[in-house]
Structure formats: structure tokens, C-alpha cells
Amino acid sequence: MSDQLKNAEEYTSGTSRRSFLKQSSLITAIALAPNAVVKAAEEGLDEKIAAAIEQMPLNVTINGVKQNLKIEPRVTLLDLLRERLQLTGTKKGCDHGQCGACTVHIDGQRVNSCLTLAVTTEGKQVTTIEGLAHGEELHPMQQAFLDHDGFQCGYCTPGQIMSAVCCIREGHADSPEEIREYMSGNICRCGAYSNIVDAIMDVKQGGKKV
Amino acid sequence: MKNDIQNKPINRVDGRAKVTGAAKYFAEIEVPGMTHCVMVTSTITRGSITSIDTKQAERAPGVLAVLTHLNMPAIPGWAADNSKPSSGGEKLRLLGSDKILFNGQPIALVIADTLERAQYAATLVKTIYKKEAHKTDLAKHKTEVHMPSRLGDYSRGDANAHSTAPVTLKADYVIPIEVHNPMELHGVLALWDGEDKVTVWTKTQGVKDTQETITAAFKLEEKNVQVHSEFVGGGFGMGLRTWPQDIVVIAAAKKLKRPVKLVMTRQQMFTMVGYRPYTLQHISMGATADGKLSGMYHEAIGETASYEDFTEATVRMTRFMYACPNVTTKYRIVPLDRGVPIWMRGPGEATGAFALESAIDEMAYKVNMDPVEFRILNFAETDPERNKPFSSNHLKEAYQLGAEKIGWFKRNRQPRSMKEGDWLVGYGMSTGVFGAYRGGSTCRAQLNGDGSLVLQSATADIGPGTGTAMVQIAHEVTGLPIEKIRFELGDSSLPPSGSQGGSATVSTVGSAVYDVCTALKEMMAAKGLSFENGAVKGNIKDVLAADGKPYLEVTKESKGGAEQQKYSMYSFSIHFTEVHVHPGTGVVRVKRVVTVADSGRIVSPKTAASQMIGGVTGGIGMALTEEAIIDHRYGRFVNNNLADYHVPVSADVPHIETIFIDKPDPIINPMGSKGMGEIALIGFSAAVANAVYHATGKRIRELPITPDKILAV
């Protein structure tokens, strides 16, 4: 067994597609033995080729703006928003769908953007906290959070507000108990829940369109 | 401000930025050419690295560098430090040696042009270790204690009185590892300008402290180190130091000559930014048959790292809280193969209060007294530890207000006597206390020609609403409308302030704001100007033109004086709660909370109420759900994520009522305002445990109070 193959085996103990590609290219290389291919693999050209073909087109409307992007399929909607589009109002708290800080609306539904691969939003409408207000006029939920002090550090706040808007739209804001249940996917470590529930009740009872 | 007029509630001055997503936290700063760093961490708990293969990671697309102990540049300030940990162990030198001192220790930095590429390449680093036996279980190693360098033993009176009294009580208490878990992930973004100048955006509770740490680590001039942390997504103590991984990322940015950003993962938040240490406590208490405390013994053993001592004031409250002539306290630490702990909200006092306030409740039942009446009977009129008067102490009033509000005296005191449907109902209460501090702070005031006022100090706001409170203080002193005043913080180039910790910001920085606004008024008077009816009276524009300045400027340093030695200064809280316990499943629900704070004059009622609510919410987590669990066979956490480490969610938290005594402390500072952040949480877990006892007749002395403990026979 050649050294390269031994290395390849050692490195493919994981099951990533890239490692698999590398292993199969090395096996092929050894079977057919064209020096150029072996050399290409050693220099990482296969990685570079893979990187190039991995860019996928994505057409998505974010906060009313049509975006025509090319992205890797492994990019999450959260990282696309934060790292490429500078829409940093959407927050990363866990990256595992466990905290709700990254909540956005996709076609009007609340979704954890960290669990959403960006390429799956093709042709869809995404709304983030930056798209909620009408110009200078805050959305009623934003105003209610401000008035009821429904936050402290503010980091979970965009996710809470996006979630709260859908909580009302879904018809799950008829009592404080129901709100607590349907808002429990959004963690607030500062512990502003008591005020958040008041804010949502206020908007619900105010009857303004959300 | 020490008048009878209560301050008005106002909305947070930075609230609009927070509800619109405009507030920029450290990771959201745009820097051209920025690169992304992902850390590879150790999978063993103690030992060394035999080999680390980075070849494949280095070859992955977009990768700029893979740094390990083999190629990491030395940190000059670390290299110069030859001090030895008091445990006799080795010092932690992140990426500076092959030694592994805890599980999850960073062993490589992978830096790439995009986050995804760095994340992928990090999976390609292959490490072979030489394992050594590890110690992570405090309960197993509790005899291997170490006398801490501070917070030594304390004793007054007869050291045996606690066990020779007519009525005695002995009990052991356990607090598990709790993790701060602020919603914002920790990290750092470093941008060098040449070899000796760096700008850093990070998550810190003190930009000056972080500036000092970086300055020392890289042996730079202070003016060449700029630290920014304007918005901080929660800290709860974990941001009270600048962590070693922050320093190595800054070093990596220097080596690469590119800006580097690290955002840690939630899993990494469990291992390298501190935690509330696992702590064992023993209390022995004696009282007379008519309910006077005659002796107390309180011992605590907490965990620390092998490479650094961590200490906190776990047994402090027992020394002064009650009028008891004979008190002995002991505090020990045990070095383990773990990352070092750090103060977590309420710090050691919250750990200690769980034990003390549980024991006090138990003793009240033993002497057949109501727990509130028992506390009032043993109320300390003066501080029995230091033999000094309290600067202010409205505890008796607080007990009464809270008890009335929740209907304390209407309950049936008999345990397991109250029911609602299938649920057992219980009422419990506790006391919380924390030192009221005033440190030193400097504030600059700039009064502009348009009558607007800018105040600046290098303090922080990790959430309580620092800017809002400071603007409110300035409004009180100057009469200017809130909208005309802006407070700037979170920038190390501003006039210096200490870190935001120990509930001292309003007292410390607020005093500087008070003093600088007062000095500004004096300066204005000398120039024929004054504040009247919420505006500047006199022609300020002419004054500025004559002086050739864009604004009137005055800077003032402020700190406490001799009064600090004459009095004992504390903030107090009283927590009352009603819990429901399901006898079939052991589920505990907190149904009502009334929390009373004696924090002196309340500067900002709206944000203060939120702080109390937030502390209680943290207390619910401490009481019922929070516990980071290590599989000691491997020294690794098994629940290091927000699904399995359960911080309270909305469904766990009822409506919380807050009551403020709101009487100014005549001594501590010009506002008469004491601290609040810690007392909001301190003691709350005991209130829940005491309510669970009242509901079920069962004492749970180990947190969290999970259903298995309720159901256990």
C-alpha cells in the first residue's frame, strides 16, 4: 500500500463528502497512475475545483429586496445574513436551533435561520428584524418591547420580536399562559419573560395589525 | 437627589437600537479583509499532545493558517511570567505547550477567509494524545483541599456553640456546576496596525480591564491598545476577565497581518469562559428553644482549576446576616483538571445563601416559629462581623411588605397542608444580601452649543441599562430633558471606569456622573450660564465662541471617602414565592413571586424592575433546572448545549412582582443608591427549596430540585 493511500485511509475515518472525494481520487490515481492526477491531489487542486463547483445560485427576497447570490450549499441562512449581507440584527446564540435568537420569517412563518440552509430559501420572502419597521415608525411589537422593557442586553430581542409577531399571527396569544407556551423557543438569559409576555398581550389587545 | 421624590420610569435610551437590530455587538463590526477563526479543542482531560497533524487542514480551500503549539508565536507577557500556581500544578499556556490541563482546551486555531471554510478545515486537524489520569469530580476529591490565599477562616465567640445549643441542626448542601450562558457567544475581533498597535472588539464587562490585559500580554503602550465593547449580549460574570483564547486570537491576527474574528461555539462556552463552581457545604446551627440563634458553623468546598486559584465569598453572609454571638466559617478549594471558574451572578454569595437560608428555614420549623418571625427575631441591628452600623438597612420593612403582598400570613404553616387540584401548594421565602460598593470612576461632560449634553466614561452595559441610569442621574442634576443627554461607554479611550461587576456601576459611575454634572454647573456659573427649566440659560454660543471651543468640557474623578470605613454597606432582598408541586410526577412550578429590594434610592425604576425580574428568573433556573453534568470517566460535559442545559424559558416563569423600598442610603454616594444586580438572584433558590418543603414536607438540599429528588423516598 502506498503512503498516500495509507494517509488517505487515516484521514477518511470521518464520513465527510470531501474526504470521500479525496479518497476516491487517490484510488483512481493509483489505479490509473497518471502522474498529473496524483500531483493535482497533492497540491489540493481537487479541493479548489470542488470549491469552485460548489457555488450555487440563490434568488431570494430579503426585506423586500431581491438578492441574486452565489453561495455554497452549506451556508446557513443565519450566516448568510450576518456574514455576507451585514444584516446583523439576526443573532447567533447557539447555531443548533435551541435558543431562537436567529428567528426570522420565511414566507411569513417564524423559522430558526441557523437550521435553514440558505439555498432552501430559493424564491422565498425572508423578513428579518431590519425589515419589520416602516421607515422611522416602529412595528407595534417593537414599540411594545420598548415600552414594557421586554429586554435587557438586547441580544435575544430581535428573535423574540420576530417570534412574538408570529405568535399573534398564528393565534397563539390569547392568554399569558398561551404566550408563555408558544414563546418558549426563544431564550432570554437576562430573564425579561415577565415583561415580554406583557408586551405581547398589549399588542394583541391593542388590535393593531401585526 | 437624596429627597423624597421618586424617579420616573423611562424607556431604555438604547432601546430603539436593540429592538430594530441596529445595535452592533462585537462580532457584527465590519472590518475589511476580515478572516474567521475556529478553535480545535482537546478531547482528553489531562495529558499532552504527542502529535498534531495540520497538513490537510492547511491545504483546505481558503485556509490562511493553522496555529498550534508548534508554530504559535510566543505571547511576550506570558513568557515573562514565571509565577507558579499555588496548587503546585502547571500554568496554563494556551498553544504555548503540548500540555492539556482540561477537556475542551483549545489546541489549534484554524483561520480561513470564510466561516464555513474555517469550520470545515478545523475538522481535518488530527491529534494524538498521551493521556494521564484526571480528576474532575469534586465529591470524589473533596478531601484534597487547599487553603485559598484569600477569604480565610473566620470565628467569633465559642466555636462549639452551634452543636451544644438546646436545638441543633446539621445539614449538607450541594450546588452543581452552573454556566453563565449569556445569549451572545463570546469572542474577539482583532485588527493590528503594524507591530505595536491593535484595536480589539470583544465581549467584555470592562474595556479598561481588557485593555490592561492585552497591553501586558503584548508589552504594548496603553495608548496603542483600543478596546471596544459598546453593546454586550449579557455577561453575568463571564466577561469579568480577558480569557487566554482571546489573547491567542489577537496574537494570530498579528502573525497573519490580517484582522481575525473568533466567535466561540455554545459548546465552547461551557469549557473556557468560566462557570459557577460545584460546591459542597455543611452547616451546623444551634438555637435556644425560644428561637434565638446561639451558634453557626458554615463550611464550603469549591472546585478550582489545577492551574489557577478561584475564590468567592461563599460563606460570607453567615458571618453578618443574623445576630448570632458564635459564628465560625471555613472556605476551601480543590484544584481539579477543569477550566477555571469565574464569578457567576450573585457569585459565591448565591451559593452560600442557598445553604444558609435553607438552614434558617429548617431551624424556624424546629423551634416552631414562622420563618419570617424567626428572621426578625434574629435581625442584626448592627453588623456583627465588623461591629459597625449599617449605612442603611430596611429589612424589617421589606419582610413585612413582601409577606403582605403574597399573603404569607394567610397560609397554613403546616407542611403538606395546602392543595390546589392535584397539586401540592407551598410558600417559601428567603433573604439575599450583597455588599454595596462604590469604586472609583472618571466621567467627562461636554455641553454643546445646542444645549445637548454628552457624558463619557469607559464603563460597560451588559444589560442592566447603564446608559439609561446615567442619563437619568444627569437629568436629575441638570434638569435637561432625557432626549438632550447622551451617555457614551464601552470604549477604552474614554475616561476610566472599573468593570461592570459586583452590582457597583450605578453607585460608582453614577457618582462620577453626579459629580461631573455638579462641576459643570459650577463652571457654567462662572461664565454666567445656568440650567433653567430644562435648558441652558444665558448665551452659551457666545461663551463658546469667546473660548474658541466646540463645547464646554469638564472631567471629574469620583470615589468614596472615609465614610466607607465607618459603615457596613449592604443591599438586601427578600424573595417570597408560591410553588406548586405535583406529587405524582415530582414536577415543581413556580407560580408566584414577590421580590422586595432594599437598594437605596432607585435611579431608574423601569430598568431596575427588569433587573430584579431577571435575577429571579436566573434564580428559578438555579433552583429547578440548571446543572452542567460531567461524565467523570472522560472529564467531558454531557449536556453542553441549550437543549440539555435548561436555562429557564418563558413557560417556566410566572408574572414577577417587584417592590422597592426606595429610600436613599444616606452614606454611600450622592444618589443614595445601592446595588441590585446580585441581590436579585441571591437567596432565590432557597426560597424555592423552602416552598417545596412547605408543599411536600421534604427538604431538598441539592440543587437543582428536579422531579427525581422530589419523588425519591
UniProtKB/TrEMBL annotation, chain A:
Signal peptide: none annotated. It comes from the Bacteria. GO terms for molecular function: 2 iron, 2 sulfur cluster binding; metal ion binding; oxidoreductase activity, acting on the aldehyde or oxo group of donors. Residues 56-132 form the 2Fe-2S ferredoxin-type domain. SUPFAM superfamilies: 2Fe-2S ferredoxin-like, CO dehydrogenase ISP C-domain like. Pfam families: Fer2, Fer2_2. This is 2Fe-2S iron-sulfur cluster binding domain-containing protein. PANTHER family: OXIDOREDUCTASE WITH IRON-SULFUR SUBUNIT, OXIDOREDUCTASE, IRON-SULPHUR BINDING SUBUNIT-RELATED-RELATED. It comes from Chitinophaga tropicalis. Keywords: 2Fe-2S, Iron, Iron-sulfur, Metal-binding, Oxidoreductase.
TrEMBL record, chain B:
It comes from the Bacteria. InterPro entries: Ald_Oxase/Xan_DH_a/b, Ald_Oxase/Xan_DH_a/b_sf, Ald_Oxase/xanthine_DH-like, AldOxase/xan_DH_MoCoBD1, AldOxase/xan_DH_MoCoBD2, AldOxase/xan_DH_Mopterin-bd_sf. SMART domains: Ald_Xan_dh_C. Residues 20-133 form the Aldehyde oxidase/xanthine dehydrogenase a/b hammerhead domain. One of its GO terms (molecular function) is iron ion binding. PANTHER family: DEHYDROGENASE, XANTHINE DEHYDROGENASE. This is Molybdopterin-dependent oxidoreductase.
